[in-house]
């Protein structure tokens, strides 16, 4: 993360004696990225984080690309899906993937996780499409609500407790590289600049430390190389009395993203919200349309010669599309042009604003849909530009 944060009690000097009330030392853990060259935080545990009680049999946890889907403009109709599985991990349905990123949905029947999860393979970006709750992690308590992006750095140990009432639908992106704020919106020390669509005030780090002191049986499921490794401890992994640093999970609401508009159509980079190795994430939010007297608010046809473009339609009516519902995905693949559906260009002329919300994933390597996605494919979509 781009700014320093601290919570709880920490010693005045790092790597020095910091004692518990009974005289024993707190156990210091440096959680660092890019070896010792990236962002890091220093955590103080009550118990030794290496004190493993038992290791169970790992469970397979991976997705396969649907290799025969081919070059097709793709619409995945996932709007009617109510539940995707029993609990948080079981309910994860990755729908598209390449070697840098996976993206999918998660609507678990069980709202409260009875275990902890650690993704050791990559950073996670969770967009809360529906639902609200609390994320408990080693870094504290973070309240999450509809419209939030939650950025979770790899190795963060966490569990969610979502409210029992109302729908729950998460869009989950897993990235091999770190998920970061956008370089061109930061100054040389990392502060978000004046032209950034959001700033530090919009970023919500954990707001309250959450310390679990009771001894017991604590299961941490660790995702590593396509498996869920089953690690049991006699103490909670959330036994942190204090931490400080730049590495921690945080939330940013799509409702706090300030759109950049212009006299003529603005390209997708103005909607960019996050960057990572091999892809970008953009947010389409309600905004005033272009104000040149002859402007065309709908986008032009375009060919992405070196990227695949995924849109997840969150709210409102998407002006350039027909037959798309809330919760639909479209994947417009590099190698084919794409653009507004027939009639939508003319219809957009004179429109003053849009109320749409959408999350976009633009990848620089080709994506493949997974075998899990095949049941959602709208077979008519590739021909939907022909009247
Ligand atoms: Fe596009």
TrEMBL record:
Identify the SUPFAM superfamilies for this entry: RmlC-like cupins (SSF51182)
Q: Which residues bind homogentisate?
A: 338
Q: What positions does UniProt annotate as the active site of this protein?
A: 265 (proton acceptor)
Write down the InterPro entries for this protein, in alphabetical order: HgmA_N, Homogentis_dOase, RmlC-like_jellyroll, RmlC_Cupin_sf
- This protein is called Homogentisate 1,2-dioxygenase
Is Heme given among the entry's keywords? no
Please indicate if the UniProt record lists Oxidoreductase as a keyword: yes
Instruction: Tell me which UniProt keywords the record has, alphabetically.
Output: Dioxygenase, Iron, Metal-binding, Oxidoreductase
Native source species: Algoriphagus ratkowskyi
Tell me a Gene Ontology molecular-function term this record carries: metal ion binding
Q: Name one Pfam family in it.
A: HgmA_N
Per UniProt, where does Fe cation bind? 302, 308, 338
Segments forming domain Homogentisate 1,2-dioxygenase N-terminal? 111-251
Recorded GO cellular component terms are: cytoplasm
Essential cofactor(s): Fe cation
Question: Belongs to which family?
Answer: Belongs to the homogentisate dioxygenase family.
**GO terms for biological process?**
L-phenylalanine catabolic process; tyrosine metabolic process
């Amino acid at each position: 993360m781009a700014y320093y944060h601290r919570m709880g009690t920490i010693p005045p000097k790092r790597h020095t004696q910091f004692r518990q009330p009974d005289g024993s030392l707190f156990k210091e853990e440096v959680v660092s990225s890019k070896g010792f060259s990236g962002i890091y935080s220093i955590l103080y545990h009550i118990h030794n984080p290496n004190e493993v009680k038992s290791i169970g049999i790992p469970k397979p946890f991976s997705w396969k690309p649907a290799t025969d889907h081919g070059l097709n403009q793709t619409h995945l109709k996932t709007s009617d899906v109510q539940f995707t599985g029993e609990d948080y991990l079981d309910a994860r349905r990755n729908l598209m993937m390449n070697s840098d990123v996976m993206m999918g949905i998660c609507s678990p029947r069980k709202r409260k996780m009875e275990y902890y999860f650690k993704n050791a393979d990559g950073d996670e970006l969770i967009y809360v499409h529906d639902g609200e709750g609390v994320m408990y992690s080693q870094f504290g308590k973070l309240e999450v609500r509809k419209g939030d992006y939650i950025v979770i750095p790899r190795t963060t140990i966490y569990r969610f407790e979502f409210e029992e009432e109302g729908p729950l639908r998460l869009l989950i992106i897993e990235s091999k590289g770190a998920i970061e704020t956008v370089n061109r919106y930061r100054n040389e020390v990392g502060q978000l600049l004046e032209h950034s669509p959001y700033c530090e005030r919009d970023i919500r780090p954990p707001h309250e430390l959450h310390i679990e002191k009771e001894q017991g049986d604590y299961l941490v499921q660790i995702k590593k190389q396509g498996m869920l490794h089953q690690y049991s401890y006699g103490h909670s992994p959330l036994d942190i009395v204090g931490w400080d640093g730049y590495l921690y999970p945080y939330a940013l609401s799509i409702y706090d993203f300030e759109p950049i508009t212009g006299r003529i159509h603005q390209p997708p980079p103005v909607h960019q919200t996050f960057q990572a190795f091999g892809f970008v994430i953009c947010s389409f939010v309600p905004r005033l349309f272009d104000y040149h007297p002859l402007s065309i608010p709908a986008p032009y046809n375009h060919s992405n010669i070196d990227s695949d473009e995924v849109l997840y339609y969150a709210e409102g009516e998407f002006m350039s599309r027909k037959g798309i519902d809330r919760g639909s995905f479209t994947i417009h693949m590099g190698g084919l042009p794409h653009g507004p559906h027939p009639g939508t260009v003319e219809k957009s002329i004179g429109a003053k604003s849009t109320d749409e919300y959408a999350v976009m994933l633009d990848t620089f390597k080709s994506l493949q849909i997974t075998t899990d996605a095949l049941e959602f494919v709208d077979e008519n979509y590739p021909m939907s530009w022909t009247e």
